[in-house]
Amino acid sequence: xxxxxxxxxxxxxxxxxxxxxxxxxxxxxxxxxxxxxxxxxxxxxxxxxxxxxxxxxxxxxxxxxxxxxxxxxxxxxxxxxxxxxxxxxxxxxxxxxxxxxxxxxxxxxxxxxxxxxxxxxxxxxxxxxxxxxxxxxxxxxxxxxxxxxxxxxxxxxxxxxxxxxxxxxxxxxxxxxxxxxxxxxxxxxxxxxxxxxxxxxxxxxxxxxxxxxxxxxxxxxxxxxxxxxxxxxxxxxxxxxxxxxxxxxxxxxxxxxxxxxxxxxxxxxxxxxxxxxxxxxxxxxxxxxxxxxxxxxxxxxxxxxxxxxxxxxxxxxxxxxxxxxxxxxxxxxxxxxxx
Length: 339
Fold this sequence. Notes:
339 residues, mainly alpha, Monosaccharide ABC transporter membrane protein, CUT2 family, cell membrane
């Protein structure tokens, strides 16, 4: 009995310590998120609508797609790579899943599985090429981005593939109780991603390879396997995002996902993941995704011209990268002074 009580206390202490470190590591972006929320809450134009339950759930539903991508992108960037194909995977997976229902009368479960497998297949292809050659990830994923986008347009002829059944709409536009279905799926995905990154050998290998691939190879880590897994996971997340977004829009659209890779990268970078690789946390990515989502929502509520929204988001990304640069410079300076 005493042993069980002691074990329970140690678990609580471990959780409390983890939460404390999470707040400490992400204090800067947490403050930025709070400032953004307060600014939108007191602004006369947005005060009445921003903090309503409907708007909050709307924001969470909208950021779910971005955070699916950001989960995979966090691993990719920690690895020191990049994945530009995820936005086009969203379009192709959504179009093929919708087409499976409308054109071929396949069961909904099969159609959704096809959409996810499309993303996984492209991710596996990226992983094979990147892990077995010296071709830069930027070039490989740029190529697959264009291939996936082209296939989406070829398959649809440039027109949306509409699905109007309630079963189809449930995944992206439905509710479980009072909580939007995409939010429930997102919670599961975030937990799985956090476990992979923090509690598994593969997670430790990702950080090791991102920090120094050559040293990781010498220590016995199969670097090619780690790269293969990370890009496959990124493709899987993009496929999942594709079917959720297609469900929310009641159709598979070849234009869906345009620029989605940029929002995912923004969420990851704003969340504190280093573009140099080797450092980053999924907890920071969650906050980064919230900042990008709330920023988008706030700009829309303020009726800011969509062209200016691109400028503002670009400035936020540049600021985040600059902060990362200063942090890296400070680390290097400390290392030199210690030596």
